[in-house]
Write a structure and sequence with these properties.
With about 150 residues, the protein is α+β, with helices and mostly antiparallel strands. The protein has one domain (about 25-150): Beta-Lactamase (2-Layer Sandwich), CATH 3.30.450.150. It is about 50% helix and about 20% strand. The chain contains five helices and four strands, in the order H-H-E-E-H-H-E-E-H. It has helices spanning about 5-20, 30-45, 70-85, 90-100, 140-150, and strands at about 50-55, 60-65, 120-125, 125-135. The chain has a four-stranded antiparallel sheet. A hairpin with a 2-residue loop joins strand 3 and strand 4. The longest helix is centred in the N-terminal third of the chain and has 18 residues, at about 5-20. The N and C termini lie far apart (about 50 Å).
Length: about 150
């Protein structure tokens, strides 16, 4: 094998590493800004919430549990955000489908929760993460999620 071919094989992993850095992603700063906007909207409305921001792989970047919110909302907020990452759509879409004829099939999908409050986050048409909000009614969770997304 020629030396140039060997050198190319050795350098190939570096080229792929450089390429992976060009895909958009959520930073901790982004997640903090999103979470702060959600917390501010929650306080403005008098609602206690759990606020979760996940990356595109469904991993937690930020989780805030406001004082007084029920602990069950932690898992619900995580599930809402995870649904939005996995399916690249708001959880309200699943809630609306559940209300339609034959919509109960949605309940059989793995990693899908049909309760408003989860929103995917896109940058340059690429999914970079999701927001999950839980603590009040599903409509109120959706209001806070929308306020959080607008901060991004």
């Amino acid at each position: 094998m020629k030396k140039s071919a060997i050198l190319l094989l050795l350098l190939l992993p570096l080229f792929s590493l450089a390429q992976s850095n060009t895909q958009p992603f959520l930073t901790l700063e982004d997640a903090t800004r999103i979470s702060t906007a959600a917390e501010e909207k929650s306080k403005e409305e008098g609602w206690n919430m759990v606020i979760v921001v996940l990356d595109a792989g469904g991993h937690i970047i930020s989780l805030r549990k406001m004082d007084g919110v029920q602990i069950g909302s932690i898992d619900v907020a995580l599930a809402k955000a995870k649904t939005s990452v996995y399916f690249k759509r708001p959880t309200k879409a699943f809630e609306d489908m559940m209300k339609s004829e034959g919509g109960n099939r949605i309940a059989t999908l793995p990693n899908a929760i049909a309760i408003e409050g989860g929103l995917p986050i896109f940058k340059d048409d690429v999914l970079v993460g999701a927001i999950g909000i839980s603590g009040a009614s599903s409509a109120q969770d959706g209001i806070v999620a929308a306020a959080a997304l607008s901060a991004y």
